[in-house]
Amino acid sequence: MQQEQKSKKMSTGKKVLWAAIALAAAAVIFFAGFFTYYFTLPAGARSLLWMKDKIDSEYYEDVDDGKFWQAAIDGATSLLDRYSAYYTADEYDVVVDSSRGISQGMGLSFFLNSNMVAEAALGSPAFYAGLETGIFVTGAGEAEDAVENTFTASEKNGETVYDYSRLSKLLSGFAVGDTAYLRVSAVSGHETAEENCKIVPVTLARYTESYVLYAAGGEAYMCAYEGGSGVWTNVSEYVSVDEKVSGGTAYIRLTSFYGNAVGEFGRAAQAYKEDGKHSLLLDLRNDGGGSVSVMQGIAAYLMRGAESDSEPVMRAVYGNGREEVYRAHGNYYSDYFSEEDTIYVAANANTASASEALMGVMLSYGTIGYEDIFITDLSGKTAPASTYGKGIMQTTFRNPLTGEAVKLTTATIHWPDEASTCIHDRGITTDDGAIPTEDAQTFGDWDDAELRWILSEIAA
Predict the structure, then answer these.
(1) Among candidates 115, 112, 111, 110, which has minimal Cα distance to 164?
(2) I need a surface site. Which of 207, 233, 364, 372 has the fewest CB within 10 A?
(3) Lowest-confidence range among 181-190, 372-381, 408-417?
(4) Same domain? 51 vs 180
(5) Which range of residues forms the domain containing residue 171?
(6) Where are the annotated coiled coils located (predicted)?
(7) How far apart are CA 279 and CA 282, in angstroms?
(8) Are 395 and 416 members of one domain?
(9) Using alpha carbons only, what angle is made at residue 188 by residues 185 and 194, rounded to the nearest 5 degrees?
(10) What are the residues whose beta carbons fall under 8 Å from the beta carbon of 230, sequence distance 6 or more?
(11) pLDDT tens for residues 70-118?
(12) Which one of 185, 204, 223 terminates a domain?
């Protein structure tokens, strides 16, 4: 009996001993693995982790972990070009929605350091309020009698200088469902006189943006998205371009290469054919580009000399030396245009990226010549008028574990012509044979006298 008890005690003691040994071994393995991992990290990463540890243990104030890591990411991003960017998971969700044409807010964008409207997104609350490129938003408020100036004035060297940084602060105070009362003027960015201004209420909402506006014969149309599907809709009451387009010419404005722009362009091409027009002005002014895939889809309608349904439209040369050929998503030119039809393009210094690539496709396949391109030439400008000159491509990489993403410049873009043209940092210019326009004072004049001049040149 005593021997049995002794054996049980020894058995229990052995279990405890072996458990302790196993625990110690596990600890050794864990720390060995940790240090092995630690010392396989690049020296910079080890330094950053060491610094983070010291800040956490020794710094006299708490430093938020999220802010620390964001500062590290911001530092890395500062080494990249201006087209590359880091997105948090929430920011990337907004980017994805925007690329699908889903947005929320007023739908207004402004020229840099200005309260001049660059664009009222097609289908947005601002669009249906009748706001257009070139109008100045000089005030904003929660009520018609509570409008505050979007600008401040100061004296510098005997001259009045205007600052428009208040615009962003005022407009950011409105959320979906709110009504903003905007004071707008066609006179100047600091106009407040009642006789030169009007108050426009705009209720912020979630909306699906359209990217193609068609005009011919005094009427304007676009695909309006209500209930999820795009309906070809007469929108003449919201725009002024319809008043400028007449005769045998039709007009298509392409604002960006996103969303359902391919389908919308196809619907506009159908309207062009149904209207029996024989010349088309494609307006790419202030179109900063977008998705390569959308460009491939739209290019399929604009390749006069294409022989197959998958002709090359762009070649990308990546930093690692790899090359990739991007091809058109079809060949529809002859379905909507005749060999006698003439296509023209309007562009300016904000015409960039996919827009320039599309122009390269049209030039490469004989759809247009340089003499069919009109480029904004601002008064007093001495250098050749040109498009933006962005011949590089970005690729976005998503982290599947966190939802965050990084957009990186990955390749140079080359046209499908014999010279494999790359227009990066050069653009398409009037030195190439493009026509400099007249009557433009800015890249978004109210009432668009430049467009009137271009249309008169086409009709001449």
Answers:
(1) 115
(2) 233
(3) 372-381
(4) no
(5) 108-204
(6) none
(7) 10
(8) yes
(9) 45
(10) 210, 223, 224, 260, 263, 264, 267
(11) 999 999 999 999 999 999 999 999 999 999 999 999 999 999 999 999 9
(12) 204
